[in-house]
Amino acid sequence: MLMRTDPFREIDRLAEQFFGTAARPAMMHLDAYRDGDYFYAAFDLPGVDPDTIDCTVERNVLTVRAERRRPSGDGVELVAAERPMGTFTRQLFLGDTLDTDKLEAGYEHGVLTLRIPVAERAKPRRVTITANGDARRQINA
Q1: SHSP domain location, by residue (predicted)?
Q2: pLDDT at 141
Q3: What's the maximum distance between 2 C-alpha atoms anywhere in the chain?
């Protein structure tokens, strides 16, 4: 059986809740990047049951909520508890250049990955250039 004697345990626990540590992050970690015509956001959620993940978009604010639960039952005896448990929430403010209506989400190997297409109006487009007097007639037409 493991026993730990620490007179400052409660102070440490309170500080970890607010500031986090390497073992107990205060928030879910995120990587965000653009690849071609898509924007990706990858959230680290190891050990989270996919059924507890909730992802919503409201007015270009993306909210991800997930819950990690401790094992429970009649025969379960907690020996050590160092992994963060409970509900984790993270919000991202998405730009108007993303098409949130076509957002796709997948959960694999403890990572929630969101794929959001870049809106057509935000994609680079070629502008036709005319030479000499053709441009003036085309602009005034």
Answers
A1: 21-132
A2: 44
A3: 89
